[in-house]
Design brief:
- The protein is α+β, with helices and mostly antiparallel strands.
- It folds into three domains: 84 residues, Copper binding periplasmic protein CusF (OB fold (Dihydrolipoamide Acetyltransferase, E2P), Beta Barrel); 52 residues, no CATH class; 288 residues, 4-Layer Sandwich (Purple Acid Phosphatase, chain A, domain 2), CATH 3.60.21.10.
- Helix content is 21%, strand content 29%.
- It is built from eleven helices and 25 strands.
- The strands form six sheets. Strands 13, 17, 18, 19, 20, 21 and 25 form a seven-stranded mixed sheet that branches.
- It starts with 5 loop residues before the first helix and ends with a strand.
Length: 448
């Protein structure tokens, strides 16, 4: 069973045709305040002062639930004959006064920026001048009381062979509270959310963004933990995944509906809030996509034999991807040439699924043990660790200990799990810190 919530199940999926990833088809949608409806669920709905026609014969609607006045509604529609005809709608169950978002820090020049925060549905803007790297700026956010400005002129190192304590998770998808519960249960942070894991290495193996409702707050929390870990002799490694590259390129199919509401109110697109002029965007663009930590090669989706044939080092892969982050999404040339299109090519590290028998045929076939051994030898590792493809539990992929899958659900603490490596070997750990040695093959489900 997929872990995807009902709210996002009807989002357009990433089409896969044969062995080629197809570019997405975007639909019109909006999130607004429901005002009134003419009729008994069909007819004309008024949302944010605009009229939407709910046709009685729209099969995708099923049983129409009329929201309360003042409730937010997510609606997808087609424009026909000068009117908006609803194809899918979903009441969100809360009003605008419940919406919190941010902060976003958008740079005007080298030392001036505007901070934008949504508090109780209202947009709060503050201007700041004379900012320098390392400055702490207070915010009106209840979860993120201050942000510290970074300096991202240099990318973080990609090779950490001497790490001896490693905890790895992936595909958090904006589930900040579950993540914090998991870290507390495993002794990584204290009750105040501060780093307590000393020289340990925490690896986030991509897809931290999209789907969830606390993406912005989660990103700022990770940035803070990066600083605290480094001060204690440890590290937090953020590996980019396909959803990070999609957001930065403007492919916004998977953002939580809350962000469609807040970006409309802010007056900026979601990708602009994570663009090269934003603090979060600059930070994301400085992250790596392939790293070695201890005996593990971490990559979000997979490291394909086709990528290995290019004989690129980690730094070359990471720099090529960093230099290409941003619009346009799904450029045809990048999907055709792996060497220059590492972000969007199906054999690239953000998309490759060939390790999983269910998907192998569409991704060039099951890689041989010899091909995996060559990848590991090139980078001095013993295991490749991937997220991206949903697994029922953390463990070996296709019965091969050289390949480990860690993409599990993060909706609540009962589902969350990570991969722990320390002096006692390899373990699956849950939100309570319980350890289970990796001894059995993993099963899998799919995922995006």
């Amino acid at each position: 069973m997929s872990r995807r919530t009902p709210l996002v199940l009807f989002l357009a999926g990433l089409a896969v045709c044969g062995a080629v990833l197809a570019p997405p088809v975007f639909a019109d949608d909006a999130v607004g305040v429901f005002e009134a409806v003419d009729g008994d669920g069909t007819g004309v709905w008024r949302i944010d002062g605009d009229a939407y026609i709910v046709d009685p014969d729209v099969a995708t609607l099923g049983s129409v639930v009329v929201p309360a006045a003042g409730e937010l509604v997510w609606v997808k529609f087609e424009a026909r004959d000068g009117a908006r005809h609803v194809t899918t709608l979903s009441p969100l169950g809360f009003g605008p006064e419940a919406v919190q978002d941010g902060p976003y820090l958008l740079w005007s020049d080298a030392d001036s920026a505007v901070m934008i925060t949504v508090v109780d549905g209202e947009v709060v803007r503050t201007e700041h001048d004379g900012i320098a790297a390392g400055d702490a700026i207070p915010t009106p956010s209840g979860l993120i009381p201050k942000v510290i400005v970074g300096a991202f002129s240099e990318a973080p190192a990609a090779d950490w062979p001497d790490a001896t304590r490693i905890l790895a998770v992936s595909d958090l998808e904006g589930n900040r509270e579950t993540f914090m519960t998991f870290l507390r249960g495993n002794g990584v942070i204290d009750d105040r959310g501060r780093w307590t894991w000393g020289d340990g290495h925490l690896v986030l193996d991509g897809d931290i963004v999209d789907r969830g409702a606390e993406v912005t707050e989660l990103l700022w929390t990770i940035r803070r933990l990066e600083r605290e870990a480094e001060q204690a002799g440890g590290r937090v490694h953020y590996v980019l995944g396909n959803h990070e590259s999609m957001v930065m390129a403007g492919d916004l199919r998977y953002i939580h509906p809350k962000y469609r509401f807040t970006t409309d109110r802010i007056g900026e697109t979601y990708d602009a809030l994570h663009g090269p002029s934003s603090e979060l965007g600059r930070w994301l663009r400085s992250r790596n996509s392939v790293i070695r930590v201890g005996p593990f090669l971490f990559v979000h989706a997979g490291y394909s034999p086709e990528l290995d044939r290019l004989q690129l080092g980690m730094e070359a892969i990471n720099e090529t991807i960093r230099s290409g982050l941003g619009p346009p999404a799904w450029p045809a040339a990048a999907r055709e040439d792996l060497r220059t299109g590492l972000i969007w090519h199906q054999q690239g590290p953000h998309w490759y699924r060939g390790y999983f028998p269910r998907h192998a045929a569409q991704w060039g076939g099951r890689p041989s043990d010899e091909a995996i051994a060559a990848i590991l030898e090139r980078h001095g590792a013993e295991h490749v660790v991937v997220g991206h493809t949903v697994v029922e539990d953390i463990g070996w992929i296709d019965g091969r200990p050289t390949l480990i899958g860690i993409d599990v659900a993060w909706r609540d603490p009962s589902e969350a799990a990570g991969l722990l490596f320390d002096g006692d070997g390899l373990h699956r750990v849950d939100s309570a810190g319980r350890r289970t040695p990796l001894r059995r093959p993993v099963t899998f489900d799919g995922g995006e």
